[in-house]
Amino acid sequence: MLSFIERVKVFATVRWLWRSDRAVAEAIRGFQATEADGVWHLHRGMARVSDPKQKAVLFTHSLEEESHADEFASIYGRYSPTPMQAKHYERDDLYAGDGAAWRLLAFVNVGEKDATERFKLIADAVGDGPLRDSLGRIVDDESGHVDLTHDMLLRMGATEPEIRRARLRVRLSRAWERWMRAGKRVVDVVATVLLSAVYLLAGPFVARAARRRLSQRVVEYDNSRIKRL
Amino acid sequence: MRVLGVSYGYHDASAALVVDGEVVSAAAEERFTRQKHDANFPAFAVERLLGDAGLTPADLDEVAFHEDPHAKFSRVLCAAVAPYPASRLEFVNSMKAWLGRKLWALGSLAARLDVPVEKVSYLGHHFSHAAQAFMGSGFDESAILVVDAVGDWACTALYAGRWRDGKPDISRVMEVAYPNSLGLVYSAFTAWLGFSPNDSECSTMALAGFGEPRYAEQVRAVIAAADDTGYAVDQRYFNFASFYKGAVTERFVEVFGPGRPPRERVPFACFGEGGEVSDDHRRYADVAASVQLVLEERVLDLAARLKRAVPSERLCYTGGVALNCVLNARIAREGPFREVFIPPDPGDGGTSVGVALYAHAMRAGGSPPRRYGPYLGPAADEREDVALVDHVNPDHALPYLKPGATKTAGVRWRRERYDDLDALAREVAARLEAGEIVGWFQGRAELGPRALGNRSILARPDDLAVATRLSRAVKERAAFRPYALSVTREDAPRLIELDLDGPADPRWMQYAVAVRPELRPRVACGLHVDGTTRAQVCGADDNPEFHAVLSAYGARSGLAAVINTSFNPSGYPIVATPLEALSMFARTDMAALVLNRTLVWKDHG
Amino acid sequence: MARPRWLRALSAIPRTAARTFSTLRAHGLGALAPLVVVLLLLAALLWVINAIAPLAPFVYSLF
User: Fold this and answer.
1) Which residues of chain C have a Cβ shorter than 8 Å from any chain B Cβ?
2) Given Cys at both, which of A145, B50, B316, B577 links B55, Cβ 3.0 to 4.6 Å?
């Protein structure tokens, strides 16, 4: 059922929202940021793994993710005339504090499974072109990662029931994040409408004062004092 | 007394820790989040700086913020409503950011650090810049010039600084108000030239070297000379307040022609073969040369005005525009001051240092602090991470190398630890001479955008093939952008035409200097087309490890100078951890990597 | 007795608003003060909506 909803969502997005190259480029910018974010999390996690063999496996894995980020950055240019300005997240160190290092991997495992499915759906929905080619390559890599990270979880000492519980926790937290994001989007729309109304109604009364102030060439107010609220 | 300086909200967020008047540490948030110019609250930088010092926020006596959010809000609001009815998008988006977060920065700073709001202080943005330069200079009196894009309301500011009764006394001579901004003009030209504004201004400066200032009169009309403020920007050419419409207006395009499409290759090259130069490419270079020239004229005029108002022999110069090394060199060479100080990070990333030093001095008093250097960032112990080298199979990474990198199967990674610095330096020098590209990661990270021998990539400067490989298979760097040279203090007089005891402090790659013609062939790949280089003169006291490598290379080649470029993949900040350094080593044609005292290399068997 | 920390943090809000108005006047922008009053009220409203953001998709789907 969830998969069906996801399929419909992706189809609708690709069909109606990605009508212009600019919209596709913006989506690619988001994919690039997600892959780069994944590398960052992997590096944070690797710093807490002491076994050099496991570290080496995760390291190679992070190289792949980094190359995916580069691939998205590169195809961005096929859809946009301007150079890509990387999208920034306020980073959240999900695995700060104490706790087994394999919990990070559970997060990575779920993230990759979701990304693989979503990229596959998008590749099916978009027409022929550089995005489809790139997604095809990346989906192949990511499918291998899902098995690899599961195998790593076991090697790092997690039991199957623990893995299931950790995955469930990750899934719940990701679902909660999605819900929150949806809520924030609604707030964003409300804010846009209200602020636009304020602008249109109040603008004529304040624009002249603002223009007058901007025409002054020097700052008269002396702000050279340290202050507190 | 402990003061934490914090800057965030626009670009280059950073934190700085001042304890008993000394800058203990400072770092940009981008180094921890791998997001270039990260503007978010510097949570990771703060955590790391305090952690390294064994402190918690509760131990701080004061938290100082780098700008006045109320003044900045008034400017942003003013700019957003003035173009009514054409600025709805700007108004809506800027008000969302300001009403939702930025206006409440002081309260949220207190909340995030869990300190009482009474402990939080703030200072005007340009004043933070001024404090950063004056308090970091070690001078007891000085003229101060800040040239930036825009802060609270000011874009350019002139101050007089002196140390009086145990406290700094920085008084205002003049502040030029938004939108009269030299920094914004240069950024707008950068955008028109197809580069990223607020990031690639160095590309505009580099391109200028290939052009002739044929459009100087037109640019002088855009940035006119003015009696009161030194210059006046004709706003009809720019969209500073309606940036969704693009950086420049139709009037601008009528004068300078259409801008460069960003994806189009720039055909100029500092070394090796360039491409075919069309009339349009010539025009882009000429316009870049023109805006560079007029910027130099206007800032030199500001320096002269400042000298008339503040009869000091010393200048502290800072702000984002102070990253322009060609202009800096002219200020040192032709300006009216006998000594010039530019802080290691003159951009917004350095304002956290300024506000922290100033807040400390105003509360605790004392004498002028010592001149601080750039090595203020965190160090990293490589010993645990580097053990993975024994277990990596580089063949597995072959599909994921950078596009220009050489894909050779069967390579193995090796490592060796050196307890003797000189032996390590000799080994690196031998590899450089053999044409290898070497990553050099040592000690504490630099504050600011320049790699000064602690997070650097090194290569020999006289081999075209090596430099080409460096550009294509390591840095992914356009050929028109020159590399910089690092040279020992001992060999510097032989190499560059610069009086080492003159106005400019040449240690931090802040000045473009001419290389002596007879030695140019020996450093040909570290030169701009006009025979200049952005030199770092490194003494044994400045950076002993880096000096040892340069000296060892000099012992082999006869000249202790190498190409020194920042250790970062294209589009990312300079690496901060051994793992990030190893990633770049893995995916590029870097042949060897030094992580503190451990050498890692690719063994082709 | 010292005020609790949350109360002190809360007091930053009216202080910020007051400082914003005094700064506007100091910069010769008193004419923008009524607009800023409206914007601050709007900010309060948006804060409330934001606080119930987890419920928002449900609430707003009702109408």
Assistant:
1) 5, 8-9, 11-13, 15-16, 19-20, 22-24, 27, 29, 32, 35-36, 39-40, 42-43, 46, 50
2) B50
